[in-house]
Each structure stands twice: as C-alpha cells, then as structure tokens.
Amino acid sequence: VADYIDTYNGRDKVMRILYYSAQYLAGITKSKELEHKLNIFSDQINCCRTVLRLFDDIPMLTYTLSYGLGRKEPDNVVQMCNVAVNTLDQLYYPLEHIAWAADCKLLSLKSDSWWTATSICWALSMYLMMIKSLRYYNVLRGMKSILKNDKNTKQTIKDISHIEANELLTAARCFV
Q1: Phi, psi of 104 (to 5 degrees)
Q2: Which positions of the chain have pLDDT values less than 50?
Q3: How far apart are CA 146 and CA 20, in angstroms?
Q4: Would residue 162 count as lying in a domain?
Q5: One matching Pfam family, short form (predicted)?
Q6: What is the average pLDDT value for the chain, to the nearest integer?
Q7: Does residue 140 lie in a domain region?
Q8: Taking the model in full, what pTM does it have?
Q9: Of 26, 106, 133, 167, which one is least surrounded by beta carbons within 10 A?
C-alpha cells in the first residue's frame, strides 16, 4: 500500500476513491450533520486533486508531443481518437487552472463558464476514449481471428486477449 500511494497516480486513485465514496455516503445518509461533514471532506479531497493537477501541464505536453499525430497507430480511427483526446486533455489543464484561480480570487473572473469548459473537455475526452477502446478491441479481434489459423501463435493470441480485456475495461470506465 505504501508503495502504491507513494506514486502520483496511486495517490490520485486513492483520493478519487475517497472523493466518490464520501459523495455516495453523503447521498445515502439520513443524518444531515454527517451529510454536511462528508460533503466538506469530499470537497477538500477534490480541491487537493485540483491543486495537484496544477503540475500536470508539462508531463501532459511532453506526452502529447511524443505521441504527435499518432502515425504509428494500426488504425486511422484509433489514431484520430488519440490525437483528439490528447488535444482535449491539453486544453483541459489550462481551463481548469483558470477556473481554480478564479475560485481562489486570484483572477477577477467568474469561474462557472471555465468549469463548464473543463467539463465539456473531460466528457468529450471520455467519449472519444471509449470509441477508441471499442475500435481497438475490434481491431484486436480481427488480428486474433487471422492468427487462430497459425498454431505457432498461441502466446500471441493470449497476449491479444489480455489487451482486449484491458480495452473493454477502459471503455467501461469511460462509460461509467
């Protein structure tokens, strides 16, 4: 557990679980006092995640530039979805920073439209990631059916099946 939360991604996942759990519990509790406390807790966890994302711009830009236009992708739909997702994710961070800064009164702006813009970027990114995962899943199924005729590809088929399962999980995660 310590090794897991020692990483940025591990910490973020734990905070996300805490946030959604507190939101859920606040929604089902009968106690108004407990509901209020859980909402405060979830808001603070969410604020912490937002502040930590202030440092995500450079890693995201590095990733986006290294991916480029995705010319190495096996499929044009997967390529276009990945480029669009990278673009939306790249836009998300500065929009969120502006919204956060407006909420903190660091900028003389109303934050509502900025938060709406971040939500639109996030939703479109999730939708495109779901499309990409389902498309990649179909590409893998096609590869697997071609390889089934060759007896020397048992391990490759097993590897593809593992990747297929991951793509379905990614698509489901985007949908939920």
Answers
A1: -85, 5
A2: none
A3: 42
A4: no
A5: PEX11
A6: 89
A7: no
A8: 0.77
A9: 106
- Do the Cβ atoms of 18 and 40 come closer than 8 Å? no
Q: Measured between alpha carbons, how far is 90 from 87 in angstroms, rounded to an integer?
A: 5
Q: How far, CA to CA in Å, does 113 sit from each of 26, 92, 97, 100?
A: 27, 13, 13, 12
> What pLDDT is stored for residue 174 in this prediction?
66
Residue 72, H or E segment: none
Owning domain of residue 37: 1-55
129 inside domain: no
Q: What does the alpha-carbon distance between residue 110 and residue 47 come to, in Å, rounded to a whole number?
A: 17
Q: Which of 85, 112, 86, 84 is nearest to 98 (CA)?
A: 112
Report pLDDT for 119: 96
Question: What is the count of structural domains for the chain?
Answer: 1
Q: Write the burial class of residue 15 (CB in 10 Å: 0-12 exposed, 13-18 middle, 19+ buried).
A: middle
| 79 within some domain | no
Cα 157 to Cα 34, 127, 128, 170, distances in angstroms = 51, 28, 26, 20
Measure the CA angle with vertex 67, ends 93 and 146; round to 5°. Answer: 125
